[in-house]
């Protein structure tokens, strides 16, 4: 009997490494897997771990241009020669040896997750090293070299999926995935992100609704800076379940960047571990509404490397594996010791920030005096009618 879920991972996936001063430190992956193993979340008696192979150039070319793929190969071979073409070699995307191989392996891991779920080998799969949603067909962007999310979705479409819902809860807009599928009515892209007025990449306004052949296929909720758990969950539940239900996808692909946390150094949202965990449970529940519960979960941003990323992505692994962890669970002493040795700081003692996850439901009333409610209503007015939904409360 096939396992209901799996995690796609091997140690080589941590070789996606922009260097010691870069925010996207592979240590966040190492500490997540270590914490998940010590808590019994992954392993032979829990969520099984499977490997993957690097994506071929042909597979990458389903999203990326051949000249861009060749450029990544060239800078991988000569990473110390200063180049600034194709978005490579700048502060966001510094070049490193074997960049192509490391990036192609992340894509291969996300496609392997897609393959296993689509073929029925598993109902759910997770790749925490994936979620590189900013990469464009012809250039790198925002710490992302190849767009594993988009390549995995293209693979699903090529292998029989008629409709795919992509849901992005990273603090940054999922601009690369939206760009690839903006005029494709088979793909619904939904992104909840900090408003483009205050955060990179400066896109994701509610008025971005899809191309002329796919109006309504892009749904954007621009969250005000400073929004905490209650407001973020209000926005999620006011938009996401309705548009996904109306679209009726064959499968859900979700991106779980955890840089919406209050401690993240690069963003201005104020979520807690508890609020982020609630969003993962909501996405799990949404996945139960699609045929066979097909769900592919990917990682993404997250730059509070020690305190936040390992805990919340361990929750994600546990939720995908249908063995959610009690938020009050203590973090293992051995893991805390490792964090202290690496940083000189005390690690979190529990798998929670001890925050309430209650929120006011949208059906309880719309308050036009608040920036949050105006943002939610802007999305509903732009997108809901195109999907046959009533935008009003």
Quick gist of this model?
The chain is an alpha/beta fold and 393 residues long. It has helices at residues 27-38, 57-60, 66-77, 99-118, 148-158, 175-181, 229-247, 273-287, 309-320, 333-343, 371-383; strands spanning 5-8, 49-50, 124-127, 164-168, 187-194, 218-223, 251-255, 295-298. It has 11 helices and 8 strands.
Radius of gyration: 20 Å
CATH class: Alpha Beta
Task: From the 3D structure, determine the CATH topology.
Answer: Arginase, Chain A
Sheet with most strands: strand arrangement: 2-1-3-8-7-4-5-6
End-to-end Cα distance: 45 Å
Number of strands: 8
- What is the name of the CATH architecture? 3-Layer(aba) Sandwich
* CATH superfamily grouping: Histone deacetylase domain
| Main sheet record | 8 strands, parallel
Note the beta-strand portion: 5-15%
Please tally the helical runs, counting DSSP H or I stretches of 4 or more residues.
Answer: 11
What does this structure look like?
The chain has 393 residues and is an alpha/beta fold. The protein has 11 helices and 8 strands. An 8-stranded parallel beta sheet has the order 2-1-3-8-7-4-5-6, sandwiched between helices. Strand 7, helix 8 and strand 8 form a beta-alpha-beta unit. The longest helix has 20 residues. The termini are far apart. One of its GO terms (molecular function) is histone deacetylase activity. InterPro entries: AcuC, HDACs, His_deacetylse_dom, His_deacetylse_dom_sf, Ureohydrolase_dom_sf. Keywords: Acetoin catabolism. It holds the Pfam family Hist_deacetyl.
């Amino acid at each position: 009997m096939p396992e209901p879920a799996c995690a796609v991972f091997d140690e080589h996936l941590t070789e996606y490494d922009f260097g010691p001063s870069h925010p996207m430190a592979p240590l966040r992956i190492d500490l997540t897997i270590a914490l998940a193993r010590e808590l019994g979340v992954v392993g032979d008696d829990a969520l099984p771990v499977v490997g993957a192979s690097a994506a071929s150039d042909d597979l990458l070319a389903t999203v990326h241009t051949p000249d861009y793929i060749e450029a990544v190969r060239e800078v991988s071979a000569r990473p110390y020669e200063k180049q600034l073409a194709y978005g490579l070699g700048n502060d966001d995307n510094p070049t490193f040896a074997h960049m192509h191989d490391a990036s192609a392996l992340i894509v291969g891991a996300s496609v392997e997750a897609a393959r296993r779920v689509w073929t029925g080998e598993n109902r759910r799969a997770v790749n925490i090293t994936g979620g590189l949603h900013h990469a464009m067909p012809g250039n790198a962007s925002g710490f992302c070299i190849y767009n594993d999310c988009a390549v995995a979705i293209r693979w699903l479409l090529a292998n029989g999926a008629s409709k795919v819902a992509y849901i992005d809860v990273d603090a940054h807009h999922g601009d690369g995935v939206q760009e690839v599928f903006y005029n494709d009515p088979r793909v619904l892209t939904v992104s909840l992100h900090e408003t483009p007025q205050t955060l990179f990449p400066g896109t994701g306004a509610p008025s971005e609704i899809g191309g002329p052949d796919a109006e309504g296929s892009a749904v954007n909720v621009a969250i005000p800076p400073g929004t905490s758990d209650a407001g973020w969950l209000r926005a999620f539940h006011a938009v996401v379940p309705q548009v996904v239900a109306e679209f009726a996808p064959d499968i859900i692909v979700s991106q779980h960047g955890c840089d919406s946390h209050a401690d993240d150094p690069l963003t201005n949202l104020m979520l807690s571990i508890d609020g982020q965990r609630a969003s993962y449970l909501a996405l799990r529940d949404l996945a139960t509404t699609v045929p066979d519960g097909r769900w592919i979960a990917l990682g993404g941003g997250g730059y509070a490397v020690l305190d936040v990323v390992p805990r919340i992505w361990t929750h994600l692994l546990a939720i995908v594996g249908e063995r959610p962890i009690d938020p009050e669970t203590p973090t293992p002493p051995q893991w805390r010791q490792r964090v202290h040795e690496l940083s000189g700081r005390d690690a979190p003692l529990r798998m929670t920030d001890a925050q309430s996850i209650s929120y006011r439901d949208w059906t309880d009333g719309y308050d036009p005096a608040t920036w949050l409610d105006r943002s939610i209503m802007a999305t509903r007015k732009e997108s809901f009618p195109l999907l046959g939904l009533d935008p009003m409360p």
